[in-house]
Design brief:
There is one protein chain. This protein has two domains: 213 residues, Rossmann fold (3-Layer(aba) Sandwich); 154 residues, 3-Layer(aba) Sandwich (Rossmann fold), CATH 3.40.50. 45% of the residues lie in helices and 15% in strands. It is built from 16 helices and 14 strands. The strands form three sheets. Strands 3-2-1-4-5-6-7 form a seven-stranded parallel sheet, sandwiched between helices. The chain has a five-stranded parallel sheet with strand order 12-9-8-13-14, sandwiched between helices. Strand 5, helix 8 and strand 6 form a beta-alpha-beta unit. This is Polysaccharide pyruvyl transferase.
């Protein structure tokens, strides 16, 4: 793909989700590296449209912006401006123009992008500017699909070529003709695992549009971390747990019970320590809440640590030092996989199964769907199966 043109990355939710940060971070660095390979001007704009500039500047994207590799711009939040909300709601009601809210959302981004493109060095005007929907699992959430489609329409009408990047999509959702039409409008779709890739292919998406490529976060750099003996190299079990996974459980309380029994099993049968590692710290879905419950239950052992919030590269630094990792957040497990740490995924969707299948030929034994947790020792059994083959 010709990268000698301005690029905008959109649908970035903010770096308080360090998986979102990892995708954006790795993508920005990849663009810079590929432009260098192609002999393109590395000073051409790379604009990241974000839900929260403050979040991004707190973590690694702020450093990349200082280095001149990207520029951050925040979406407009119509729900925070009463008068605009009323006016746009009335306009949409009268005209039926559902894209109006999305044009409002990206108004500042389009203005800045236009200005930056005019001021940019010469670029190949035979190529449209490129809009990259930072896919991840966005299309897996029904409540997001409508805005994803509308946003895609807005960028296409603004004259962008569009690609869907590093995505997972539930194959059954492709039966929706509206979603299918939207996906066909991308010039390229980069599926991050084979279940999504084959699902798109079987649904009728042209093979010319499809690329099977691992999640860009596999390329995330690893920061060196040195907090004394908080995480001992090769003698620590890393653990991540998320409120989202707990919400998917079929038996109330079974997930937390499994995690507690697993930690006790580690303490009873090994001399390893345990590191609790959060990967999302948004107020509405903060990994530190369930992890704090685990910490409080075992803090008197002196063998458990709760790792504080930090950029994705730093979290990967802790994960990379572990001898084994149990993770609920997809990108915490990608940090482990890409650091060659044996990993058990507590998953709930196509992304977990697809990534494990591509790595190991099957997701069985490597991915434990939270919906299937029924016994309090399910996690212990899954851990021992992986240990047998490691």
């Amino acid at each position: 793909m010709n990268l000698n043109r301005p690029i905008v990355l959109y649908m970035h939710a903010g770096s308080g989700n360090h998986g979102c940060e990892a995708i954006a971070n790795s993508t920005v660095k990849l663009i810079a590296a590929k432009r260098k390979e192609q002999g393109a001007d590395t000073k051409l704009p790379v604009l990241i449209v974000t839900n929260s500039v403050a979040e991004d500047r707190k973590y690694s994207l702020g450093e990349l912006e200082k280095e001149g590799l990207c520029t951050l711009v925040e979406e407009r939040h119509i729900d925070r401006v009463f008068v605009d909300h009323v006016l746009y709601y009335g306009y949409r009601k009268i005209t039926g123009d559902r894209e109006s809210f999305l044009r409002y959302r990206f108004k500042d981004a389009f203005k800045l992008f236009s200005q930056m493109s005019k001021e940019a060095p010469l670029w190949d005007k035979s190529q449209k500017p490129l809009a990259v929907s930072i896919g991840g699992d966005n299309y897996c959430y029904p409540e997001m699909v409508q805005d994803l489609i509308l946003a895609h329409n807005v960028f296409r009408k603004k004259g962008f070529e569009t690609i869907l990047w590093g995505c997972s999509i539930e194959p059954d959702s492709l039966k929706d003709p509206v979603l299918y039409k939207d996906l066909c409008a991308y010039s390229k779709i980069y599926a991050r695992e084979s279940i999504t890739y084959n699902g798109l292919l079987n649904a009728g998406i042209s093979a010319d549009k499809l690329v099977l490529r691992k999640d860009p976060a596999f390329m995330l750099d690893t920061s060196d971390v040195s907090d004394g003996d908080v995480v001992k190299q090769g003698k620590t079990i890393g653990i991540n747990l998320s409120p989202m996974v707990i919400e998917k459980e079929k038996t109330p309380g079974i997930t937390m019970e499994n995690y507690k029994k697993f930690i006790q099993y580690i303490f009873d049968n090994t001399d390893d320590s345990v590191a609790l590692i959060p990967h999302v710290v948004w107020s509405g879905s903060d990994d530190r809440k369930p992890l704090t419950e685990l910490y409080e239950a075992f803090k008197d052992t002196g063998r458990i640590a709760l790792i504080g919030d930090r950029p994705a590269e730093g979290l990967k630094g802790y994960i990379a030092k572990c001898s084994f990792f149990v993770g609920a957040r997809t990108h915490s497990t990608i940090a482990a996989y890409s650091s060659n740490v044996p990993t058990l995924v507590i998953g709930y969707s196509v992304k977990s199964k697809g990534i494990a299948t591509d790595l190991f030929g099957t997701y069985e034994n490597y991915c434990l769907p939270v919906q299937e947790l029924s016994e309090p020792d399910s996690l212990i059994k899954a851990y021992n199966k992986i240990k047998e083959t490691a």
